Amino acid sequence: GKGSEGRRECRGQSAMEELTETIAHLELPDAVKAEAYALLLKLLRNIVSNPSEAKYRTIKRTNATIKAKLFLDGAPEGILFEDVIRHCGFNEVGETFVYPMSAAASALEPFCDTFEGILVSLNHEPQQQSQQQPQVSVERPKFQNIVPAQKTLRAQAELKSHNEQMAQIRAEKRKQFEGPASPGSMSPKASGTLAPPPDNVGPRSESSNSISGKSDSSAPSKGGKTAFDFKKRIDTAEAIKKSNDELSALRAQQRARFSNFQNDPNRYDAPQYQQPPSSIPPQSGNASGSSGISKFFNTLFGGGSSSSGGGGG
């Protein structure tokens, strides 16, 4: 009984070793051999894990995956893998290989160990792959993050340099704009000598100094009015306003004097109206011939005129 079963297992193991040794010398890539042994290991483990399930005990030739990976399409390599299946205890029934329900599932465990050892020798152990892959994925981002960091530092340095240059240009333009406000800065233009243009200003300074020998009022700069122009405009406006105010006050005074003259009933007999201005020369002839209107105008405007002479009519 048990002795005969043990001898059959030993003979099966010995025959299996011969088959696997023959397969090892086939001119096939190790990856192809590993896929074939991984498939055989999966089929046997299904039976060991589910000994009472009949569906796991049947291997179909017509299955596309089994047919391709075990070369069951008539290729010479397929004959060797068919012998491997038979030596595991499967019976060939038509287009299938069947592991009998009467056979113990535990009898397949030694073959599982053999296939696992072959996969380890072919470096096709799934657990080893799962351990090696995370190491590559962890190291890769460390190298990729170096380049963006360098680019960021370089961009910050360039931005800082650009800002410093722009600040220097603004300061030079501000000096150029505020320069004409002082008398000393206006002397080159007034004397007809052009000052050298400042750096990094562009064509603006050239256009503003294109006409020599003229003051700022006759040749204003293209960039805008200077402080001197604004001051000159303010002085002119104040002078005009002052003149208008004086003229308005004089007119108001004249209107007041005329109104007082019209409202005075004794305007013709009042001493201040009868007294001739000091600037009127003595009249010849009839002094009383001057009309009241002539006296009024003489008194109103404070001086004599050619029309205030005697004989007014």
UniProtKB/TrEMBL annotation:
Low complexity bias located where? 205-218, 271-284
Q: Which Gene3D superfamilies match?
A: 1.20.58.2190
Entry coiled-coil feature ranges: none
Please note every region of biased composition (Gly residues): 301-313
Against InterPro entries, the record matches this protein to: PUB-like_dom_sf, PUB_domain
Which residues lie within the region annotated Disordered? 175-231, 251-313
Domain of life of the native organism: Eukaryota
List all Polar residues biased stretches: 256-265, 285-297
Domain PUB residue range list: 35-104
Name this protein carries in UniProt: PUB domain-containing protein
Q: Which organism is it from?
A: Vitrella brassicaformis
